[in-house]
Amino acid sequence: MPGLFRVVEESLRIEQAIEAVAGPDRGAIATFHGTVRDHHDGRRVLRLEYHAYPGMAEKVLIQIGQEVQDRFGTGHVAILHRTGILAIGDTSVLVAVAAPHRAAALAACAYAIERLKAIAPIWKKEHYADGSAWVEGCAVDPAP
After folding, report:
1. Residue 139: pLDDT above 70?
2. Quick check: 14 and 4 in contact, CB under 8 A?
3. Which secondary-structure segment (H or E) carries 8?
4. Residue 4, Cβ neighbours under 10 Å: how many?
């Protein structure tokens, strides 16, 4: 499947995702750019820690790309997720989907990030001033 599906320790750039899906036959590129926020459930977050087995996680990202192609008719998908210790404001995840028209690109991008949160074997640990906790992914899986 064409596209870009990676789990990496280095910093992510939105341009990586956009360049991977852009093309002259695509009039829309929808993106999701997830960053580390400074709070969760009323607690101040100091940093995040992401863990994954990249080989397994990348297979799931490719599966999500295939689902996007099957559901929305576009295989122009990029999903990149970072691992390691991330500071507030760091980019943790990027999703880009290109399609001929905006409706399909926007719907497919939303679907891809929700599926990633629901099924990808990527684990997040939040660190607070008074301890740390593992955080669950998305509560709702958009696929039946």
Report:
1. no
2. no
3. strand 4-8
4. 18
